[in-house]
Amino acid sequence: MTGYIKERYGTYYLVIRYKDEDGKRKTKWISTGLPLKNNRKNAEKLLRDTLAEYGESYEKDIKDDDAVPDSEMLSISFTDYIGLWLENMKKQEVLQPNTIQFYESRCKNHIIPYFKDRNILLADVDSSDLQDFINYEKVSGNNSLAKNKKEGLSPSSLKHIRTTLTLIFSQARKERLIFDNPTEFLVIPKIQKRDVDFYTESEISELLEKIKDEEIYPVIYTTLFYGLRRSEVCGLKWDSVNTVNKTVTIKHTVVRFSDVIEKDTTKTESSHRTLPLSPEIEEIFIRQKEKEAQGRKKYGKHYVNNGYIFKRESGEMFTPDYVTRKFSQLLKKYGLRHIRFHDLRHSCASLLVSKGYQLKDIQEWLGHSDIQTTANIYAHLDQSRKLNIMSAMQNINKTEVNTNA
Predict the structure, then answer these.
(1) Are residue 286 and residue 223 in the same domain, yes or no?
(2) How far is Cα 353 from Cα 384, in angstroms, rounded to an integer?
């Protein structure tokens, strides 16, 4: 139990915070009836006496009214506080817009719908409430996959939700609205490592041959050549290309959560990289310039002006969602093995490994922030190298046999 004094309506109030017999956090306001004038010490004594009656001590570190919440905040519902937290995140302008959208989506699509009907106060939410929520999301958290059918969220999504909850309650604790952070002991399923999928060299050749006349062929070829992330290939702009020095610089990205967000930054500092402009890629860019000129002529004043290389005839840029959707449709159309668009990046890495390039070379080409990331993800990509090792070991045995002979 803790407590402090608060000035309200011209008198002193005692604000007592405690847990009931069920362990629920409660807040109780007690009017002292003491006028503000010349009664501060009397109110403090009354608070000490009240807390002492229950064997607790007075929080002497809370001295001014700005350091303690008002009665409205102490009785705020959990879902209302989430709304205030989101608004505060936007006003601070510290996080990237897509990060804010990420948290907003987790709150509005999962946390708020679950707790709104339960009408629970922020101060009353405990670890068991949150664990019940996580368990529910694990089984029924995704209702969008099929009509009349509930699907559970993946361990990765549950981890993101836990992160969001932790931030919310951390802020509430800073504001002295709760005693501790109830997310500390939340249990979520362990994230299983995903097998890295990729196309072999022959599969890449078949893919490029079959889709060579498709609209997003230039996007797919460029992605494969440089091992780009989806956000990076969509974010390629003309100011990224230097035809004099024959380089292309990865420095813009386009991401999407609830809205399309254009950024003049990359995922990490290492993702910002300058690569050589090959004759094949330069030819693709030249053809894109020609298409752009045709689009400007056709659409006139309705043409969408922007600096992006890959876009529709009308000038609208290719969004990440559009590229992913079209890629999946093309694989189905031509009967090709299904992989994710991001697996084109893995396919590039696989080619580099098979050609004998070292991890450091691959790390710099792909823009990984540290070489361990490259090693962890791509260590098992090239099966042929493992077969060569096996053959070498078998040859050692044969050598021993010949020596003994």
Answers:
(1) yes
(2) 10
pLDDT confidence band for 228 (50 / 70 / 90): very high
**Whether 321 contacts 329, CB under 8 Å:** no
- pLDDT tens digits, residue range 330-362? 999 999 999 999 999 989 988 888 888 888 888
CATH number, residue 223: 1.10.443.10
| Contact yes or no for 262/256 (Cβ under 8 A) | no
In this structure, is residue 186 part of a structural domain?
no
Same domain, 354 and 257: yes
**Domain containing 9: what range?**
2-68
The predicted model scores a pTM of: 0.63
Q: In a 3-state reduction of DSSP, which class is residue 359?
A: helix
User: What backbone torsions phi and psi does residue 209 show, to the nearest 5 degrees?
Assistant: -70, -40
Q: 36 by DSSP, 3-state: which? A: coil
In tens, the pLDDT along 70-113 reads: 555 667 889 989 988 988 888 776 677 777 888 888 999 999 99
Residue 230's contacts (CB-CB under 8 Å, 6 or more residues apart) are: 223, 320, 323, 324, 341, 342
Question: Considering the domain boundaries, does residue 394 fall inside one?
Answer: no
Domain count, the chain: 3
